[in-house]
Amino acid sequence: MRASAVVIRSYSTSFGAATRLLGRRHRAHVRNVYALVRVADELVDGVTEGAGLTPGEQADALQRLESEVGRAIGSGYSSDLIVHAFARTARAAGIDAALTAPFFASMRADLPAPTDTAELRGFDAEQHGAYVYGSAEVVGLMCLRIFTRHRSLDALEQHRLERGARSLGAAFQNVNFLRDLADDTDRLGRNYLGTQERLTDADRIDWVRRIEAELADARAVLPLLPKDARAAVRSALNLFAALSRRISRTTIDELYARRVRVPDWQKTAIIVRSIARTAGETR
C-alpha cells in the first residue's frame, strides 16, 4: 500500500490532498484503486511507446496487466506491488470483473493501432459513452463499494448512490477532456469529445452544461455517503466545479493553447470550506 501512496504523490497533488481527508478505513483502499488506474493509463498514453515498445507489444503489456489483476483478485496475491495492493482492496470491497473488465476495455481503446496514421481519431457519442463508463464511471463505482462495504443499502439507496458515483466520474473525465484538448490533439491524436477535427465554442458550452448536470447529480447524493468519506468527495467535486467554471470563461482557442488550472490558494479554500460544511452536518 506504500507503493500506491508513492504513485499518488508522483502524479496528483490534488487527488493526494483529497484522499488525506478520507477516514482511515477508506484512505489506503482508494489510493490502491487510483494507483492501478494510473499505471494502466500511463501504459497506454505514451510511456511504453517512449520505451520503444511496438503497438502490439503495448497491447500485450496491457493484457498481462489485466490478467495479473484477475489472478490477484482470485488468489489475494501478486508479486507486482501495485496489483497486490489493488487486489487486497478489491477482495475487501467486492470489486470484481464486472468493474475491472470495462476499465481495461477503455484502456485498450487508447492503444495505438498497428496501422495508425497522423489523422485525428474522433469519438462519436456511443464511443464516448462506452469510454467514459470504463475509464471513469467504474472507478467511481469502485470507490463507492469501498465507502459502503460495511453498510446494508436498500435498492433505492443503491441506485441513487451508483448514479451519483457514475455521474461524478463522468464529470471528472469530461472536465479533463476539455482541460487536455491540446495534449490529446497534438500528442495523442485523439478527440474524445467529438468526431470533428476541432471543437467550437458552441461545443465547449454544451459540454460545460453537461458537466454541470453531472456534478448536480453527484452533489444530490453526498448526504448518503458515510461522513468519513464525504469531505473528500465534496472537496473533489467542488474542485472540478471550479475547473468547470473556469472552462466556461475560457475560449476554445485558449483551451487548445493551455491547460486550465485552479490556483493553489483557491484549492486550499475549497478544501477548507468542504471540511467545514461536512463537519456541520448532523450525520
Automatic annotation (TrEMBL):
Alphabetical list of Pfam families matching this protein: SQS_PSY
Supply the Gene3D superfamilies for this chain.
Answer: Farnesyl Diphosphate Synthase
* Alphabetized SUPFAM superfamilies for the sequence: Terpenoid synthases
Concerning InterPro entries, the annotation shows:
Isoprenoid_synthase_dom_sf, Squ/phyt_synthse
User: PANTHER family from the entry?
Assistant: BIFUNCTIONAL LYCOPENE CYCLASE/PHYTOENE SYNTHASE
Q: What is this protein called?
A: Squalene/phytoene synthase family protein
